[in-house]
């Protein structure tokens, strides 16, 4: 393992944690936790930013009568978040580790007291060897206090904690020169932050709960974080050993570095 890596923020998107029928995938979650345990043994702390609460709520509640989009998100996430944590808590415990839930809204990153509180909470958990599992507090974050998506939350956490790497795990192997399913598209291994790669972004047809981000927002976040000297990756969360391989500097996914 690279000796200069001590802290890694890993963000895992809804699409990684679910199958095409929007059901939570236990084996994927387990493989993520296994890798966190491998890094833990090497004294590398992982802060996990996990999406999935809305889809986990939908899996339980199915269709609901509420029409208002914001209230639907509040209801689904409130039911789904403890469900996600139940999965994580059990799996992390199976690996002999401990985890904690840290929910936040954008206001918690405002400079001053809010930000200091956030730092104290994360640093406290990390100092006890506890794995923080973060998500947006979707039950209370509305309009002004909302993150654009969890990619933004992950980036803010990486900056807050002075992380050595940010790894954004999605359902694609990285950034492609076109649609990932097109035969002509090629993966881009490395992006320098001044390069115009936004032209490669394809439109998406996601429905409610299947994540908020999209590739455009991922690129913005990846470039912004890399510009703060935190090397950032977009990689496939369903690929075995992906986090450990990235920490070992293997050529995996798309790496974003400052020019
Ligand atoms: N040029 C591109 N290269 C790779 N993926 C792309 C590209 N353009 C659009 N995408 C889409 O971006 C999606 C990943 O972003 P997103 O849906 O936000 O994932 P997540 O739920 O993991 O946050 C992929 O499923 C892929 O179809
Ligand atoms: N906070 C929401 C996810 C929002 C989000 O950014 O989703 P994604 O684009 O899949 O990372 C949830 O837990 O369902």
TrEMBL record:
Which protein family is named in the record?
A: Belongs to the glutamate 5-kinase family.
Write the record's keywords in alphabetical order, separated by commas: Amino-acid biosynthesis, ATP-binding, Cytoplasm, Kinase, Nucleotide-binding, Proline biosynthesis, Transferase
| InterPro entries for the chain | AceGlu_kinase-like_sf (IPR036393), Asp/Glu/Uridylate_kinase (IPR001048), G5K_ProB (IPR041739), Glu/AcGlu_kinase (IPR001057), Glu_5kinase (IPR011529), Glu_5kinase/COase_Synthase (IPR005715)
Catalytic function, reaction form: L-glutamate + ATP = L-glutamyl 5-phosphate + ADP
Q: Which residues bind substrate?
A: 51, 138, 150
Look up the record and name the pathway of this protein: Amino-acid biosynthesis; L-proline biosynthesis; L-glutamate 5-semialdehyde from L-glutamate: step 1/2
User: Which PANTHER family does the record match to this protein?
Assistant: GLUTAMATE 5-KINASE, ISOPENTENYL PHOSPHATE KINASE
Location relative to the cell: Cytoplasm
Q: Which GO terms describe its cellular component?
A: cytosol
**Annotated Aspartate/glutamate/uridylate kinase domain residues:** 6-236
Name it: Glutamate 5-kinase
Q: Name one GO molecular function term.
A: ATP binding
Q: What class of enzyme is it?
A: transferase
- Main localization category: cytoplasm
* NCBIfam families linked to this entry: proB (TIGR01027)
Its Enzyme Commission number(s) read: 2.7.2.11
Recorded source organism is Kordia periserrulae
GO term, biological process aspect, one: L-proline biosynthetic process
């Amino acid at each position: 393992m690279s000796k200069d890596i001590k802290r890694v923020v890993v963000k895992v998107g809804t699409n990684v944690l679910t199958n095409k029928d929007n059901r939570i995938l236990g084996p994927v979650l387990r493989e993520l936790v296994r890798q966190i345990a491998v890094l833990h043994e090497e004294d590398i702390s992982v802060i996990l930013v996990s999406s999935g609460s809305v889809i986990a709520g939908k899996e339980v509640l199915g269709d609901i009568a509420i029409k208002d989009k914001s209230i639907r998100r509040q209801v689904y996430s409130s039911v789904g978040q403890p469900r996600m944590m139940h999965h994580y808590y059990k799996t992390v415990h199976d690996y002999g580790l401990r985890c904690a839930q840290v929910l936040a809204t954008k206001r918690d990153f405002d400079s001053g007291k809010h930000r200091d509180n956030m730092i104290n909470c994360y640093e406290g958990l990390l100092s006890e060897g506890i794995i923080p599992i973060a998500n947006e507090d979707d039950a209370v974050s509305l309009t002004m206090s909302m993150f654009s998506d969890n990619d933004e939350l992950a980036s803010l956490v990486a900056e807050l904690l002075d992380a050595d790497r940010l790894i954004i795990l999605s359902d694609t192997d990285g950034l492609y020169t076109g649609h990932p399913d097109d035969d002509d598209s090629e993966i881009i291994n490395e992006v320098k932050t001044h390069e115009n790669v936004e032209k490669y972004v394809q439109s998406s047809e996601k429905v409610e709960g299947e994540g908020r981000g999209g590739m455009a927002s991922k690129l913005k976040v990846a470039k912004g974080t890399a510009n703060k000297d935190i090397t950032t990756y977009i990689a496939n969360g369903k690929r075995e050993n992906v986090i450990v391989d990235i920490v070992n500097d293997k050529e995996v996914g798309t790496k974003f570095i400052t020019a």
